[in-house]
Amino acid sequence: MSDLTDFIAGLPKAELHVHQVGSASPRIVAELAARHPGTVPSDPDELRKFFEFRDFAHFIDVYLAVVDIVRTPQDVRTLTYEVAREMAEGQRLRYAELTCTPYTSVRPERDDIGMSIEAYTEAIEDARVAAERDFGLVLRWVYDIPGELGIPAADATLAYALDHGPSALVGFGLGGPEIGVPRPQFQPHFDAARAAGLHSVPHAGETTGPETVWDAVRLLGAERIGHGTSSAADPALLAHLAASGITLEVCPSSNVATRAVATLAEHPLATFVAAGVPVTINSDDPPMFGTSLNQEYAIAAELLALDRDGVADLSRAAVRASFAPPEVASRILTEIDDYVG
Questions:
Q1: Which of 49, 74, 127, 198 could form a disulfide with 80 if both were Cys (CB 3.0 to 4.6 A apart)?
Q2: What is the pLDDT of residue 280?
Q3: Has this prediction a pTM greater than 0.90?
Q4: Element (DSSP H or E) covering residue 2
Q5: How far is the C-alpha of 275 from the C-alpha of 240, rounded, in Å?
Q6: What secondary structure does DSSP assign to 220-264, as a single string?
Q7: Catalytic positions, written as ranges
Q8: Phi-psi bin for 55: left (phi > 0), alpha (psi -120 to 50), beta?
Q9: Alpha carbon distance 198, 213 (integer Å)
Q10: Per-residue pLDDT tens over the stretch 147-168
Q11: What's the pLDDT score for residue 328?
Q12: What phi and psi values does residue 40 have, to the nearest 5 degrees?
């Protein structure tokens, strides 16, 4: 496996399901926590314990604690640029669609912390341009609704996307807890986003059943599904995803960490592939789950019994399922081919 591990480490990659805040490593979180002392420890060893999740609800609590220390435009810029550095230097990422939740940074419901959407947009765009210049990493944005905050958050996120969205914004998503957050309520928001040319990429079926995935497909017009883990329980849904070419953004370690799946051995990735469902491999919130994109590729290789060519095909699949500009996608596919030899 060491030869395959080395191969994965050097393989040019794209990632489609990875969160801006959730990608903050202990190094980055420690810097932000030192700026804003409070509930998040700034010591890296203590942070590792802080990131030990009991269940999905606890993960959300910890995630929001980290959100709380991203308070200024400079924090947003530091977070985004440093995440890009680690993606490019540690994982050999060439393209990433980074999911951002501007509502939790703008904080319209709070007077003590927050920033304007204009300042937020300027910060992520400055980091994006610098990351491509300095690291050769092309970033695009997905703005997602924090579903647990309901319609006000959805209204605001849609306005941010339509009225203030940068040119690098390609997708509109929906994250946060699924239980108690029905997807149908967000149909008007996704209709408007899609009408404006944004791609629909909601989370669904991570901690709820297949019906949530059906809702995402039928009502939200999903082109890709974040996680979609419970789809494996519904053969008709798998057949529909396969026939429609709707990609599942699979994040194995995340699903185990949040107890969506009991063990890696029980992960339904192989079921998806056997059913002909398009899949990509992703890291979701890698430092929080003690993983990396390289590690997720190694896990997928084991679950699917892949050799080097099979692993390279996973990388190609991510590029092809992405919303990258055609010239960027073509360049990365050529890089992959050249690397494989």
A1: 127
A2: 98
A3: yes
A4: helix 2-10
A5: 10
A6: T--SEEEE-GGGGG-HHHHHHHHHHTPEEEE-HHHHHHTTSSS-G
A7: 206
A8: beta
A9: 19
A10: 999 999 999 999 999 999 999 9
A11: 98
A12: -95, 125
